Amino acid sequence: PLLKIGAVLSTMAMVTNWMSQTLPSLVGLNGTAVSRAGTSEKISPDEGWQVFTSAQAPDGKCLCTAVIPVQGSCSRDLRSLQLRQLMEKVQNISQSMEVLDLRTFRDLQYVRNTEALLKGLDSRLRAASDGHKSLSARSFQDLKEKMRELLPLLPVLEQYKADARLILHLKDEVRNLSGILLAIQEEMGAYDYEELQQRVLLLEARLHACLQKLGCGKLTGVSNPITIRASGSRFGSWMTDTMTPSADSRVWYMDGYYKGRRVLEFRSLTDFVSGQNFVQHLLPHPWAGTGHVVFNGSLYYNKFQSNVAVRYHFRSRSVLVQRSLSGAGYNNTFPYSWGGFSDIDFMVDENGLWAVYTTNQNAGNIVVSRVDPHTLEVLRSWDTGYPKRSAGESFMICGILYVTNSHLAGAKIYFAYYTNTSSYEYTDIPFHNQYSHISMLDYNPRERVLYTWNNGHQVIYNVTLFHVIKTDGE
């Protein structure tokens, strides 16, 4: 075997030497490879070795004409790949920062108004204290009590403003890091990759902390339904991207709950309402259920008659990855109460991509899993203990799974499972099911609304989240 390996290595060395002599005559200045037959073909920078002609010599040997990739050494290719991956991460961080900025804008406006009211009340109290003869003793005491109740809010407001400044600082850091990455694309090795990677990881950690502190909370209320459009069959799914710049307002529409392959992409919500200005995507694999989600330009869905998760990329119109969810039931083995092949339900919240399903090992109870959006690998799973066939629908907000007790009229949000503490509680949050048959329910963290398909109607609900901002003294 060692002799054979030596012979192979020797042959490879001869081929490499021949290639180095032949390459200048085979590759033009514009990156075009020319074969012996006189034909030409463009070489992609990302392609590997190319064989352009092959023939048989009189002695029976195979003669091939090949060209080494135009790109340089393997180390440069690896560094280029690493930089592209870093740039993708920074882009995702930038988009998440924009989402956080949009979500906290209204809260910050309320905080500023509240601060003005508090300061005005404080001034009135001070004036009354200096000349309290103009007030009755009872009125003065009432005013003083109200001020005492409101005073603890002042440090909270100051903390909120400081956190808002932190968001602006993080955005500046993201822009700075993006500029560095763009600059070193043309000059490889000019910056230490490991240091860049650490900066990106640190930004991700700080962003996650900001999201948990400012953008997250416990669901306390759901608004009345807002009907956007009435279209399609009784069952279906519609959505916007859960992580994308605010300028991107595309809407995706998938009618039906099984064997479907047709996805309509509308340019905006206005176009969706009017049913105009859309393009069609024809999926290579049909879907099952209605638990689809669009996350960062890709559609995640369950492949029909399987427990395979599929990631379809809209811009390239191709499947980037597909992976089986080990042990997950499919084909109406463990659906929601309404059926419809709803065994596997994909969701996105502030923490990323999730899959909700169940297995025989979990005795039909809901399993919630964190999923890597790039590889579809399951990162961690939780057994909630709630029977999936008794659930109408479910959705994730801030790492908490909320479950409705029915898909019909009279439904309410009945159960909450907290992945951060692996604990649960029963809830009683009213949920107005206007059209009496929900077959899709998903939370969009970018817009802080619930998207619903209700008996041929596309409906949204605003949500109220309760979160406590802790100050240093607490």
From TrEMBL:
InterPro entries: Noelin_dom, Olfac-like_dom, Olfactomedin-like_domain. Disulfide bonds join C216-C398. Residues 215-467 form the Olfactomedin-like domain. The keyword Ribonucleoprotein does not apply. Keywords: Coiled coil, Disulfide bond, Glycoprotein, Secreted, Signal, Synapse. GO terms for biological process: signal transduction. This is NOE2 protein. It holds the Pfam family OLF. One of its GO terms (cellular component) is synapse. It is found in: Secreted; Synapse.
